[in-house]
Amino acid sequence: xxxxxxxxxxxxxxxxxxxxxxxxxxxxxxxxxxxxxxxxxxxxxxxxxxxxxxxxxxxxxxxxxxxxxxxxxxxxxxxxxxxxxxxxxxxxxxxxxxxxxxxxxxxxxxxxxxxxxxxxxxxxxxxxxxxxxxxxxxxxxxxxxxxxxxxxxxxxxxxxxxxxxxxxxxxxxxxxxxxxxxxxxxxxxxxxxxxxxxxxxxxxxxxxxxxxxxxxxxxxxxxxxxxxxxxxxxxxxxxxxxxxxxxxxxxxxxx
Length: 255
Ligand code: 13P
Description:
The chain is an alpha/beta fold. It has helices at about 15-30, 50-55, 80-85, 100-105, 110-120, 135, 140-155, 180-195, 200-205, 220-225, 240-250, and strands at about 5-10, 40-45, 60-65, 90-95, 125-130, 165-170, 210, 230-235. About 45% of the residues are buried. The structure holds 1,3-dihydroxyacetonephosphate (13P).
């Protein structure tokens, strides 16, 4: 049985004050009923982690970060290591988001190294995969997604997803208002699970695979209602507590 999960990726948004307000609204409203059936995670920018962590303390809402360095320490200006994030109470780290891959030069290899470092620090990586519109239109969706997953097997071995979450985020659906249809998303999620199952059956059956890309309160129930869609990684709709909580509620109803 997989507990549904809804994670908010706040990206580069908010101020100290608004991050605390958003986290407080989510933590105070989410407790009754919803949080028993769905794991709720928020991922603020790293300089807001300490204050958001203080707000979430003693609540069931978990804290995540948006990236981590593959290295533990040393001459890596501008980076933050997994063990540093763990000190702030981060239980999750998003790895390989398409914005990191397309704008900041993250490669399959560097994402896999980050994934490995995060898992070694006792944090759960949320490993992002997804194809561009070009990839999809040229029939390469699964080749791209499988090469992204394969990088983790290469770095970490057959059980590379044993303590991980995967997020399928078609690049063409991120921030565009264009969502994959539930059937399109389910098809890829099922193939992701099959690909992992070929290496490790048990991991595959326990693996939570989140959908990300313009998920909102109107489409969440139908997407999360699909058998291999175990929740969502939410961008824009995670910045309004009412919308985010409505998605959490839709996920809890599937539990
Ligand atoms: P949107 O929900 O804004 O499309 O963003 C999705 C995403 O990138 C989550 O990581």
